[in-house]
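Technical annex, item 7. During the second reporting period the consortium partners agreed on a shared format for inverse folding records so that results from different sites could be compared directly. Each record opens with the tokenized structure and is followed by the designed sequence. A conforming record, contributed by the partner at site C, is shown below for reference.
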């Protein structure tokens, strides 16, 4: 059974045929236009669609067909004669702020613009220096490595970055000399942390409903020192991924997105070499 509402050109999925068609029109993915309207299923080719139609001939009785529902604006509850009319309606900024690529409506032009500039539509162009994983942003790679999936902790990542010659300087602490992997301490809470109503953190005043949640908190960056500082706005961060996300958000305008991407790619080889040293 074919998968409903999938773009066979880029593998995006959609909740409705109208969403798929809007996407196909915007991206000129003509291979997506083979759709069984009564069954609400898309096919890869006209041959596959014909085979389906031949085996479900009863679905194509003119008395039972109702194409109007496939050209309906769910937000306005209006029906249109064809997809072209519906797309023209969705393109009207006085009525909708519609993203044709992911079939979503936004509350304002600003919200739509912010969405279009976000990672939502970015390709996975960034490769992890330690595996074949592909990511949408430099911060995605940083968080991936900090997670410990390559037997390196966030502390190893921080130590490696602090040894890199980065201009302008972003490290609060300067580490020199031969590369030495940091000693990592793991905190473990026991049932003794239960105070009768919750499990309390002995490093701060937060409490948690379960022991596993408390241990997750203890081994998160929550109690880490700030290690990095934005050279422009002086905001401090515990992890390099947090600092890179700050740059990507362009909150303080330190660098453009393209500059961040190129800069991160230039540092990848040096970073991975230090991490594995």
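Designed sequence (site C submission):
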């Amino acid at each position: 059974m074919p998968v409903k509402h999938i773009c066979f050109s880029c593998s995006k999925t959609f909740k409705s045929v109208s969403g798929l068609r809007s996407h196909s029109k915007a991206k000129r993915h003509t291979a997506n236009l083979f759709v069984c309207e009564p069954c609400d299923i898309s096919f890869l080719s006209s041959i596959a669609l014909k085979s389906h139609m031949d085996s479900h001939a009863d679905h194509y009785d003119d008395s039972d067909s109702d194409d109007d529902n496939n050209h309906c604006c769910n937000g306005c509850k209006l029906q249109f004669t064809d997809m072209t009319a519906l797309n023209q309606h969705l393109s009207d900024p006085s009525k909708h702020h519609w993203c044709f690529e992911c079939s979503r409506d936004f509350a304002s032009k600003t919200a739509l613009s912010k969405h279009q500039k976000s990672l939502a539509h970015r390709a996975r162009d960034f490769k992890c220096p330690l595996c074949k994983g592909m990511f949408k942003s430099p911060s995605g790679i940083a968080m991936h490595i900090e997670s410990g999936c390559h037997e390196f902790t966030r502390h190893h990542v921080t130590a490696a970055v602090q040894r890199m010659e980065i201009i302008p300087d972003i490290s609060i602490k300067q580490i020199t000399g031969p590369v030495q992997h940091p000693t990592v301490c793991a905190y473990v809470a026991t049932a003794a942390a239960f105070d009768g109503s919750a499990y309390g953190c002995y490093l701060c005043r937060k409490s948690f409903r379960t022991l596993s949640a408390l241990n997750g908190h203890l081994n998160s960056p929550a109690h880490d020192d700030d290690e990095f500082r934005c050279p422009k706005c002086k905001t401090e961060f515990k992890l390099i991924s947090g600092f890179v996300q700050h740059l990507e958000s362009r909150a303080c305008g330190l660098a453009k997105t393209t500059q961040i991407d190129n800069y991160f790619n230039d540092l990848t080889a040096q970073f991975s070499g230090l991490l594995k040293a």
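Confidence is low (pLDDT under 50) at residues 60-69. Residues 126-276 form one domain. All partners now use this format for quarterly exchanges.
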